[in-house]
Write a structure and sequence with these properties.
The protein is an alpha/beta fold. It folds into two domains: 193 residues, Rossmann fold; 79 residues, UDP-galactose 4-epimerase, domain 1. A six-stranded parallel β-sheet has the order 2-1-3-4-5-10, with helices on both faces. The chain has a two-stranded parallel sheet with strand order 6-9. Strand 4, helix 5 and strand 5 form a beta-alpha-beta unit. Helix 4 packs parallel to helix 5, helix 6 packs across helix 8 and helix 8 packs across helix 10. The model has no long low-confidence stretch (mean pLDDT 97).
Length: 314
């Protein structure tokens, strides 16, 4: 007898595919998981969103679907990132309430915290000031998930919560150089530079700092949050380790055994210098959780990219 039917919106993306992979060995007998892509329903449409809830009658929702992009994609389209993500989030939470979903876990990001802040950032600081200008649209849309969750809890007692991952990378990422995030973008550029015998280009100064979580590690944490985490307040899911863009770029070159030249295009934006988030709250729950070493995660992702170069998002 299936006890839990979990709808995973954004199930065809980087994080969704990571969760699907972990569930190959970690799913429970009374769980059914449904992974959606935009082909199943355009979640910008209230009626298409309702139709998918009517069809599957989920008891839990893992809400990953979003308009997602790296620094340069956000800088070009803050209004679209704001409106599209607001619409999707409101549709999912409204239908979760209408169809009596027992638990919803949505997804924020460490890049939505206040730009002017003290460090390390923790969950209580989410609304303490404006986000970085480069991605204000995405940031405000994501922050409203936390506000709407509070509304649904206080007025209707809904258990709608959220997680706040740091930068994510891994297999099935978006390797498009203009739209994607830094690690997949650099991997794609390293691949092309090696093929063409040209120099490898790092955008910006390489000085900014980031925390990077492997998509498979995030997947294991997401499944734990869905099954065990009872708070409405968000929980940061980030590594202790912070690394500069320059250092992560050279780890990528090492994984490719790249021997060519390296250039820094310093006329390109650096974005936020840092967004160091504390995982103290996570460690209180899971003191023994082991993150994959970043060199291993980068190597596995490079091998995946090489093997799937023809068909992956790029
Ligand atoms: P992704 O690889 O770009 O996947 C996005 C997913 O959302 C895809 O499954 C996509 O479906 C779906 N989607 C987009 N627009 C849709 C629409 N209108 N209707 C239905 N589905 C739609 O993104 P990701 O990196 O996995 O991100 C997943 C979640 O993690 C997002 O909420 C994101 O904000 C959050 N997050 C990501 C990072 C990161 O570094 N990647 C960091 C922190 C938080 P299609 O495949 O059909 O397009
Ligand atoms: O992952 P990313 O694009 O976004 O990283 P953020 C941007 C940083 O990497 C900047 C440098 O310092 C860039 O100058 N960089 C160097 C590159 N080479 C490249 C490259 O080839 N591609 C890219 N994309 N960057 C995002 C937010 O911030 O974080 C999003 O804008 C999202 O909303 C995401 O939440 C997690 O880490 O700066």
């Amino acid at each position: 007898m299936v006890k839990e039917v979990t709808l995973v919106t954004g199930g065809s993306g980087l994080v969704g595919k990571g969760i699907e992979k972990i569930l190959e060995t970690d799913s429970l007998p009374d769980e059914e998981w449904i992974f959606l892509s935009s082909k199943d329903a355009n979640l910008l449409s209230e009626s298409e969103t309702e139709a998918v809830f009517e069809k599957y009658r989920p008891t839990r929702v893992l809400h990953l679907a979003a308009q997602v992009g790296g620094l340069f994609a956000n800088m070009k389209a803050n209004c679209d990132f704001l409106r599209n993500n607001m619409k999707m989030n409101d549709n999912i939470l409204a239908m979760s309430h209408k169809y009596n979903v027992k638990k919803v876990v949505s997804c924020l990001s460490t890049c939505i915290f206040p730009d002017k802040t003290t460090y390390p950032i923790d969950e209580t600081m989410l609304h303490n000031g404006p986000p970085h200008d480069s991605n204000f649209g995405y940031s405000y849309a994501k922050r409203m998930i936390d506000v709407i969750n509070r509304g649904y809890y206080e007025q209707y007692g809904c258990q709608f919560t959220s997680v706040i991952p740091c930068n994510v990378f891994g297999p099935h990422d978006n390797f498009n150089i203009q739209q994607g995030h830094v690690i997949p973008g650099l991997m794609h550029k390293a691949y092309k530079a090696q093929q063409d015998g040209t120099a490898f280009q790092i955008w910006g100064t390489g000085a900014p700092l980031r925390q990077f979580i492997y998509s498979l590690d995030l997947a294991r944490l997401f499944i734990w949050v869905l099954r065990e985490y009872q708070e409405i307040e968000p929980i940061i899911l980030a590594t202790e380790e912070e690394i500069s863009i320059k250092d992560v770029a050279f780890k990528i070159l090492e994984a490719f055994e790249f021997k060519g030249g390296v250039e820094f295009l310093t006329d390109k934006a650096d974005g936020q210098f840092k967004k160091t988030a504390s995982n103290t709250k996570l460690r209180k729950y899971l003191p023994e959780f082991k993150f994959t070493p970043i060199d291993v995660a980068i190597k596995e992702t490079v091998e995946w990219f090489k093997a799937n170069h023809e068909t992956c998002r790029k």
